[in-house]
Amino acid sequence: MSLPSIDAYVSEHKEQALDTLFKILRQESISTQNKGMRECASLMQDLMRKVGMEPEVYETKGHPILYGELKSNNPEAKTILLYGHYDVQPPDPLDHWQSPPFEPTIRDGRIFARGAGDNKGQIVAQLLGVKAYLDCFGTLPVHLKFVIEGEEEMGSVHLPEFVEEHKAMLESDLVYTADGSSHSSGQPLVLLGVRGMLSLEIEIEGAAFDNHSGNTGNIVPNPAWELVELLHTMRDSDGHVLVNGFYDHIRPATSEETKLLKDLPFNASEVGEKIGYPSLSLDGQSYHHKLTMEPTFNIFGMKSGYLDQGVKTITPSKASVKIDTRLVVDQDPADVFAKIEAHVKAHHPTATVRFLGSMNPSRTPVDTHIVQQAIAGIKEAFNQQPLIQPSLGGSLPDYVWTNILKAPSMLMPYANFDQRNHSPNENITLDHFFNGIRCTAHVIHELGK
């Protein structure tokens, strides 16, 4: 078998690949708003059929999960599970888009559309990579399973239950996910885990309604000030979280993981430019350690009083803050939530703490044999050794594979570093999309040896 034939095939079928992707990108599929979800699931089923499988639809209490299989002629072949999602984030604010978010447009070598990078462009590249392999060689050297869900952008709320109930059906030697962003250097990147996440809301109430800030100034309590004072008890000026036990159970990086982080290339000015923060001054080792091996304590929204234009002199009746924490192995979101709740109650007994969602962290050891085989396939696809990062800074439901299915898992981002996922003008470069197709075929080939 000659893998250059795959490269030639991808080159010859670029227009068909783009037509396939554009059809799916045109269909909005906003899971949090239940917009276009069934329609997009149907389009994804059609693509799975074109690849050669007969997809099954598994209903959940939310949006459906699609499952399909392709068998190798070799019964002893390894089984690889490919995961992705067909739902996307809302496109707001619409006036920041240079072209309509659900009308894919090519500009400057990039495909602009909501879902171009996260995750439609990447899961379509996986499926087309499998089709390319079958069209070139007729048979697969490995068994393939596909799980494509519609709730990743809302926390994959029903995926753990699906995996728990279908362990035997999903049993695999490796889970291979194409998601996330490539390294800022442009080099291919392998990720062997993710940070977990806990999101919560804290609300403080004062008077029963907003008051005139002069007539009752110094009389009714101001919950906005109380919330600010509470937050000061939770984190110091250096960013250290002051909640008792917050840093318990964190698994230290191994010497191999520390070396991998140290070897990752880093250019502070280049990264700063790409993330819109040109004053970034961290060194590479600190940057990557903070991004992968340390938890966060982030405020992503605050609300109190009058926030529109002009002046409205009131003492607000309520104040609230929404917080997300990115957690690392082996932190437990439920344990961290309980500790935050206890801290809040100790400092402000009448405050309300609401759990909003969570996802467990996950990590696969770098020396796992089948992971090393897949890395060899990625090296062949790009003709260079990929960078290896022990964890993604963000969160994906990777733990359902490592903790529930008990399978090693790896992520190979097919999208560019500056894909602007979750933001206006989301994009994937044409090169990244086509290389994703090639890479999938190369990984299949290597894992079949």
UniProtKB/TrEMBL annotation:
It holds the Pfam family M20_dimer. Keywords: Hydrolase, Metal-binding, Protease. The keyword Protein biosynthesis does not apply. InterPro entries: Cyt/Met_Dipeptidase (IPR051458), Peptidase_M20 (IPR002933), Peptidase_M20_dimer (IPR011650). Residues 193-349 form the Peptidase M20 dimerisation domain. This is M20/M25/M40 family metallo-hydrolase.
